[in-house]
Amino acid sequence: MEKYCYFCTYIINININFIAMKRIFTMFLALILLTGGMVKAQQEKQMPQTSTTIVTDVITVNDAAQTGVTTSTFPLIEDFESGVFPPGNWTVINTHSNSDANWHLVEFETGGYGAEVLYYDSQMMDEWLISPTLNLSSVSGSVELSFDFLMSYYWMVDPYDGADLMVKISTDGGTTWNEVWKEENFGTFDNWTWYTVNLILNNLSGQSNVKIAFNFYGDDGAQVNIDNISLSPATGIQEIDPNQVKIYPNPSNGVVNIVAAETSHITIYDMVGKLIDSHYVSENEMLTIHQLSGLYVVKVETEKGISSYKLVIK
Predict the structure, then answer these.
(1) Is 17 helix (H, G, I), strand (E, B) or coil?
(2) Where does residue 12 rank: exposed (0-12), middle (13-18), buried (19+ CB within 10 A)?
(3) What whole-number distance in Å separates Cα of residue 304 and Cα of residue 239?
(4) Reduced to 3 states, what is the DSSP secondary structure of residue 116?
(5) Strand-pair partners of 300
(6) How far is CA 158 from CA 38, 190, 191, in A?
């Protein structure tokens, strides 16, 4: 007579069920950890501890070449403080399906407005912010393009070159574009820190159909902000590597830190050329200054030459 152990069968079934449940739990735990890591990586693509008001009243155009040419006054000054986006006679080209990943207006925690692009997902971003047409036919000599930027070095340059912020110039109203700058040209910079770029452009004088574009291109980049754009006659000051000087925050509510990589003479002027402050600093020494609201020029003199930077106090 064949013997059958019901109790043994019961124990075996329990063990099988326990092993199956253990495998399911392990897979579930791994899924949670993987998802959490993905969310964390996405959050790090935006500036930490930021609370901004996003304004999504944007105008989208389908082609960079505009048929309705509107000429803006030169020098061009755009600080986005009108609270309207795009600003007067500026245009945007939006390619990403989410409006946060298009150029849009942002209100900073420290006050004031600027232009912003946010990382949303791995969909390709080819976002353009384009200036009005500028008539420089009566301009002789070089012109200077200046703007402030903030972004992540980690995601945009090294170790992840996931996207580029490029400055492009057109002399035919937007039909063709030439790249004149991108973030890698700036050298090493700190994540989520404001920097000022000063570009001397030698081939725009006499041109009557000039446009400037800020082009964000890539599918794995991070948040980018720009502010205080100006195009004006060059001052004639010799420019050194912008990475030698850090001015932050800029714009500021009144307290500004200035760090120069070399022993320097730092002077601050108002917009009519009046000397406001003067300091001598050692290499990598942090100079902290307090200024009233207004626009200023910070000049840094080293053995290599003199560089100038615009400073905005809100």
Answers:
(1) helix
(2) exposed
(3) 9
(4) strand
(5) 266, 307
(6) 19, 11, 11
Report the CATH fold assignment for 53-236: Jelly Rolls (2.60.120)
DSSP-assigned letter for residue 186: G
CA distance 15 to 144: 76
Mean pLDDT by 10 residues, the chain (314 residues): 46 46 46 39 66 49 44 86 94 97 93 94 97 92 89 96 96 94 88 88 90 97 96 62 72 88 87 82 91 86 77 86
Please give the structure tokens belonging to residue 139: 């301009």
Please report, as a single letter, which amino acid is at residue 132: P
Give the domain ranges of the chain. Answer: 1-43, 53-236, 244-314
Domain at 244-314: CATH architecture:
Sandwich (2.60)
88-99 burial code (b ≥16 CB/10 A, e <16): ebbbbbbebeee
